[in-house]
Amino acid sequence: MIPTIHEVACALRGTYRLARGDRRGADDFEDGPEAALRSFWVALAVFPPSMAMVVLQRWSQFDDISATRILVVEMISYVIDWVAFPLAMFYFAASIGRSQQFFRYLTAYNWAGLPQLALSIPVVVIGQTDLLDDGLTTLIVMVLILLLLAYHWFIARAVLEVSEGMAVGVVALDTLLVFIVSQATDSLVLG
Asked: What was the pLDDT predicted at 26?
């Protein structure tokens, strides 16, 4: 099940509208398990640039560790990142009475990976090439993190149709899982 060009266009319009704070962007995503499943094609689309960012970020951190080890562990981590949150969110959505909205939410969440990557690549390149001083780079990274958290918060709020506080809980769950996977990845890389 590959997304059609029409579905891709609608999803990109939806991610753009949600990023602008337009709740109607949620309507641009198809609903149902099939649409959610097709949205995982985004994981394949963003895999090459994601791995390139890993190489840029990790190479200098682990000079004495083999490149093969880093890439294998990072690829496993990548897969876990793409499945851990949806799995946890499936049960969380049910626990808060939002099972009906889950598949559209997952579809929107996955498609949001495209603009997230588009914003992250330049920041990673700037950070790794020392184009700016460390203080300014740190500021840019922090602003990007806050923007992405706000974007995910709005997606949860608009698509799941939950309160502001519940949307914070969804973002916190995602952030916690990313942190756990990141810590486990670092442990595996270091051996």
From this structure: 97
3-state SS class at 22: coil
Which domain does 159 fall in, by range?
A: 5-190
Do the Cβ atoms of 59 and 137 come closer than 8 Å? no
* CA–CA dist 12, 18 (Å, integer): 10
The structure tokens 């390149």 sit at 125
* Structural domain total, the chain: 1
What does the alpha-carbon distance between residue 159 and residue 181 come to, in Å, rounded to a whole number? 25
Q: Which position has the token pair 């099940």?
A: 1
Between 171 and 69, whose confidence is greater?
A: 171
What is residue 119's three-state secondary structure? helix
pLDDT bin (cut points 50, 70, 90) of residue 62 is low
Tell me the pLDDT band of 22, cut-offs 50, 70 and 90. Answer: very high
Looking up tokens 């914003």 gives 119
**Is the overall model pTM greater than 0.90, yes or no?**
yes
Q: What are the contacts of 52-56 at 24+ separation with CB within 8 A? A: 53/120, 53/121, 53/124, 56/124, 56/125, 56/128
**124: its two tokens:** 């990673």
71-86 pLDDT, tens digit per residue, is 899 999 999 999 999 9
